[in-house]
Amino acid sequence: MDFTYDAQRNEYCAYVAAEPDIPFGATLGNYKTFASCTPKGNVRGLWDADTDQIIFGSHQIAYRVEGEPTLFPRQMAREFTFLPYAQVAQFRVGERVQVTETFFVPHGDEHGRRVAFVVDVVVHNRSDSPLRVAVFPWALLVGQRFYGEPEPEVRAQSDGRRIRAVNEVTGAARIWGADRDPHECMLALREQVLLSSMERGALTDGARLDVVTPSLAEFVSRRIFGAFEYRVDVAPREREELRLVVCFHREGTAVAEAGFEAILADRQVQQKTAAFYADLLAQARFMVPSPEIARGVVWAKANMLRVAKEYPQGWGSTNSPPSDILVSRDTSWFVHGYDYLWPQFSRDALEVFNRCLEPSGQVVEYVRGVSGYKTNYELNINDDTPLHLVATLHHYNCTLDDDWLREVYPLCRRITEYMLSQRDQNGLLFCQARGVELFGISSWRNIIPQYNLDGAVTEINAEGYFALEAMAKMAAVLGIGEDWRHFGDAATALREKMMAHLFNADTGGFVLNYDQAQNYQDNFTADEVFPVLFGVADAQHSRAILQRLQEDDFTTPVGLRTISIADSWYFPSHGFGLLGGVWPDLTLWFAVALARNGMVRECAEWLRRVYATMEMGNRSNTVPGQFAEWFDGGSLTNRGMYLSPWTGAKYVWAVAETLCGLDGYRTSGRLHIAPLVPPEWEWVAAGRVHHGGRLCSYVVDLRERVVYCDVKDASAEPPLRALYAGRDVSRDVEITPIDVGAIAFETEDGVRIFLLNVSDVPRDTAVAFRGRRYRERLEAGAMRQIVIGQPTLTPTGEAPQGRAPSSKKRPPDTCPN
After folding, report:
1. Which of 193, 196, 430, 517 has the maximum number of C-beta atoms within 10 A of its C-beta?
2. pLDDT (tens digit per residue) in 639-696
3. Measured between alpha carbons, how far is 586 from 584 in angstroms, rounded to an integer?
4. pLDDT tens, 97-118?
5. What is the number of other CB atoms lying within 10 angstroms of the CB of residue 776?
6. For the segment 513-529, what is each residue's pLDDT rounded down to a tens digit?
7. In whole angstroms, what is the distance from residue 299 CA to residue 641 CA?
8. CB-CB neighbours of 793 under 10 Å
């Protein structure tokens, strides 16, 4: 597998892989839809966010060169190029024809809300003679979830140019066709009828079916198929193009037709989709001298853009694409990453749960994005409530929007008081579950069959402690001294109760929980990371816990196991890997905890491993450029979703708030940079990161202990000192090779360009800036400066007034304040 990495703009990143090296194709999406592709070019599962319905089954293409047999996808070996916005497949049809299929979901201001996908076909005649190539797209026209029933009450009809499939009950319509007129167009009740016709070389053979009614479709379990035959004449050594489009709209044929025609008429739709991704990928450019981590950040952002959806109930990302289930805990963690890339999404996603809050103040488990149905699984407390408060603090600190904080504070106060009301006689947050699995687990590991984890759970109490700290900080920012003291004292008390009742001095770790019968579970699991991550454990105990988790019974080459292989509960795949499998999300929490406790080299290595695993293709059952969900603890291969919706945002957060030195929990009111990096690194950098309502860029020279930035009031952790270097003009820098990054600052007196080699091999670079040209050699992982003129450097100013410090109640050995 080959790859390219575009450090400067993150736009031209790609993977190239042969078909035998990948297990599945890309999953793409825009604001309103998802669609996936198999390794044989089968586009399937087009889904609509406004109805939570899969509305188009599958789409494949066969080819026939005149005088040769028809070749179906199963008979052609492909080479794939995975781009942030598209999947490109190239293959031979016989000896004389090369075909390129580009699958993408239209995105951007004009097309980003169309439930549609496009396959652009390019037929290249490699011979010296003219050729006629028959192109046979065929499809299952109705949507069907896996193992579910196809959509009922659909009438399909062809007019000889297009195929329309309309639900006679709802009026929802899908239109399928191309930018050329077909030679033939046909419907069928059995797929094999179409395949047999294609194999003989002509689509129709005998009776023609132009209409399929719902009653007719009932005879074949509602499955309706359609196909086209396009005859494409290609001159010698020339190329011809064919654009295939499927477009759906729930409001009927006229709206669907308008969207379909708009996509066909817009010859720049693919370029506009690429430009949408390019514009956002150029933001939050976190760069470090580790090629795997640098690539991981880019593709994490691409994943984030694919999964963000606008539902009737608001913005969010589902926990199980394609779906409209919006989970609170997932949303809270999404916020941690989206804050640096797309903060408006963070705010809108939080607002969904603010609106759906229970009257008591409890944050619900999930909301259906279409209907608004909500549930808490009959749990009185779990991780949703405290994590929502933590995410609110994070979003505030990254936006510094005082008006917004003032608006949501009363609601947050109600959430916090509800949380405090759920303490038991020992002063601990206590879950009184009434069932098992979803109804019996208050933890993030809530999908283990027939499992129960309730009562006083260490994870929930650790999050509760940090949530109280978050509320104290927000109260302090708003100058509400009484609340600051109240919530700060409550945080201190909860931590003390945890140490008294949940910490086991014999093992040096925390118990998993004590349940409603006061029975303790004291087996040591990876959930020990939570009291470390959220600052409950002191420095000594934190390091002891982290050292234990780094032993061989927990660690694997692909990440951290959820429980030890020596645990009596261990099984590598049972319960979705939550009893011994490997979850990248857990490994990312672990990496952040390591960095905050001085184990920075180990943090960097785990961040590297997490993404390196995603680049292994069939060896790890992962799709290039996509973060997989979870891995078997024995075989170390992906057993979950090929595109995990929640891991990308966590990866951006983990890199940003460790190696690149940001802190979403700090309430100083200005950008503060405190990198946690291996001592051998020379630099870290970030370009166009959202903070405080603006885009910020900085370069940290770790040798000289200087932060160069475009923020006049930024601060840095001693011994670093922050210098204002001017405005960011990095977009004016052109650099070759593209895997070398550049960040440039300009003052009235000159320009300072930083060249950043993320690679582990030396690079000879050619740099162009406004007509000037330079050549520089960068050693592996090195940084160089190009200075034009005499650019000034100004020490950054004092912190703005009016920002309050965080609660003084938090122990000094947790993450920096």
Report:
1. 430
2. 999 999 999 999 999 999 999 999 999 998 899 999 999 999 999 999 999 999 899 9
3. 5
4. 999 999 999 999 999 999 999 9
5. 18
6. 999 999 999 999 999 99
7. 16
8. 13
Domain ranges in the chain with CATH number 2.70.98.40: 2-278
Number of H helices, E strands in the chain: 16, 45
Residues 6+ apart with CB under 8 A from 478: 402, 405, 406, 409, 804
Q: What is the pTM of this model?
A: 0.95
Q: Which of 360, 346, 359 is nearest to 390 (CA)?
A: 346
Per-residue burial over 495-504, b if 16 or more Cβ lie within 10 Å, else e, is bebbbebbbe
Decide: residue 516, CB within 10 A, 0-12 exposed, 13-18 middle, 19+ buried.
middle
Q: Alpha-carbon distance 499 to 324, whole Å? A: 40
* Contact (CB, 8 A) for 70 and 63: yes
- Measured between alpha carbons, how far is 335 from 399 in angstroms, rounded to an integer? 12
Distance CA 85, CA 169 (A): 34
What order do you get walking across the sheet with 27-29 strand by strand? 27-29, 34-37, 43-48, 53-65, 131-140, 225-234, 184-188
Task: Estimate to the nearest angstrom the gap between the alpha carbon of 215 and the chain centroid.
Answer: 42
Sheet holding 374-375, edge to edge: 325-327, 366-368, 374-375
Residues 6+ apart with CB under 8 A from 325: 318, 319, 366, 368, 369
Domain span(s) for CATH 1.50.10.10 in the chain: 283-656
Asked if the model's pLDDT at residue 811 lies above 80, the reply is no
Q: Is 196 helix (H, G, I), strand (E, B) or coil?
A: helix
CB 709 within 8 A of CB 725: yes
Please state whether beta strands 715-716 and 672-673 pair in parallel, antiparallel, or not at all (unpaired): parallel
Rg, Å, the chain Cα set: 28
Question: Which is it for the CA torsion 399, 403, 405, 407, positive or negative?
Answer: negative
How many beta carbons lie within 10 A of that of residue 177, not counting itself? Answer: 24
Of the candidates 775, 758, 794, 814, the residue with the CA atom closest to the CA atom of residue 10: 758
Give the separation between CA 169 and CA 173, rounded to whole angstroms.
Answer: 11
Q: Which fold has domain 283-656?
A: Glycosyltransferase (1.50.10)
Fold that domain 2-278 belongs to in CATH: Beta-galactosidase; Chain A, domain 5 (2.70.98)
Residue 595 has phi, psi (to 5 degrees) of -60, -40
Question: What are the tokens at 250?
Answer: 């729930």
17: its two tokens: 């892989």
By the 8 A CB rule, do 790 and 780 touch? no
CA angle 182, 185, 189 (to 5 degrees): 155
Q: Report the distance separating Cα 594 and Cα 255, nearest Å.
A: 53
Distance of CA 455 to the CA centre of its chain: 32
Q: Which tokens is 714 given? A: 């930024």
